[in-house]
Design brief:
Layout: E1 2-4, E2 7-9, E3 12-14, E4 21-26, E5 31-37, H1 41-59, H2 63-79, H3 81-92, H4 96-120, E6 124-128, E7 131-137, E8 140-144, H5 150-164, E9 167-171, H6 178-190, E10 197-199, H7 204-213, E11 219-223, H8 226-237, E12 242-246, E13 252-255, H9 263-272, E14 284-288, H10 292-304, H11 324-340, E15 342-345, E16 363-366, H12 373-376, E17 383-389, H13 392-400, E18 407-411, H14 415-424, E19 429-432, H15 456-461, E20 464-469
Parallel strand pairs: 1-5, 8-9, 8-11, 9-10, 11-12, 13-14, 13-18, 14-17, 16-17, 18-19
Antiparallel strand pairs: 2-3, 4-5, 6-7, 7-20, 15-16
Amino acid sequence: MLEKRDFYINGKWVAPAKPNDFAVIDPSTEEQCAVISLGDQADTDAAVAAASAAFDSWSQTPLEDRIALVEKLADVYDARKEEMAQAMSLEMGAPIDMSRNNQVGAGTWHMRGFLKALKDFSFEEDYTPTEKTLREPIGVCALITPWNWPMNQIVLKVVPAIAAGCTVVLKPSEVAPLSGHLFAEFMDEAGFPAGVFNLVNGDGAGVGTQLSSHPDVDMVSFTGSTRAGIAISKAAADTLKRVSLELGGKGANIIFEDADEKAVKRGAIHCFQNSGQSCNAPTRMLVHKSRYDAAVETAADVANNTRVAPASEEGRHIGPVVSEVQYNKIQGLIEKGMQEARLVAGGLGRPDGLNRGYYVKPTVFADVTNDMTIAREEIFGPVLSIIPFETEEEAIQIANDTPYGLTNYVQTQDTEKRRRVARRLRSGMVETNGQGFAMGSPFGGYKQSGNGREGGVFGIEEFLEVKAVSGWAAE
């Protein structure tokens, strides 16, 4: 069993101020695979103090030197990517091939995107011949990350923050902390100055709240549930710090009558990817009535042919969900769906042959209406709800009738319709016809899906303040 109790503070691995062991569970087996310690106020204070002490020097470090260290980090990350893949597969249940390609690859992708954006990023601009506009690092940043895409979210926060000149305290999810611990090793090996990057493990009620309310923290960047995002915002309010949130989603995937023949299959596969544990998953499939029956059949076929297996096995399957808490929540919502709608694939319990581990059957509900629980709540499991519609206007109304607004999807061969509908969907992202987003594209949502943007130039700007300086040059 792995023992990872230490925190990374001020350039050193240090023991927690007060032992508070927490078991890390392998979701494929339900067995303990590691132990960490949850931090206390003294640990949080020490990490914030280290970041505060390092800020002045780091914020004045030339940009080219900061970029050089990020490039070194990228090299270390690449050299040790197999370790990272194994850590994420063990802690949160991503199948090892998916962990190598997608989970690890997300970190590589975003690091490259930030390095590309930094090459041309303007930290100073002439507003008038005598006035200068400066973009300066906001200060000490608390970065609170989730368990579902560990490296995606850690890289999306740590790299732009430190590249902008901020210093940081990272609190990864206590449910999946091994990847964060390994990332701290990468930062140390890359040679960042002491105090620039710090890591303290803890839960939301403890270290999460302590960071959010800390008077010496200038900004909190959080990815996770909407419920937790609200709690963080309230905790941060007394100190008026900036809060950047990337929260939940309930994406609508609109399948028009002229959608390509693979649209339904593509949407169902996307919904089940990562065992449904993605905030941008297209979990509501809105299908034109002319294609509805065929779509239900296709989606059910995808679910029935999606293999579920342990994360340690190679191959193109989905693994378990992350924890017993998540498993029980998903089972409860599937049970609710069986009372509300028509079950056409999957259902309650584990898939056949899997008697231990947090495995969920890929599940499809048909004849769903948008007022049902399964259409309103973010299930965060491999569960798809199919809703029929008749007109473009009705589809837009259904898609927008949600508290969330992260990612919506549009499938049609009519270019004008695709653009018209995309403009009217109330979400931070609209993916059309299966076309993925470019490197550095802004990731974030509307409404209760949050208020921040991550990735590329947009992600760097999140960690900057804007300063106007008059009389920069003589008149």
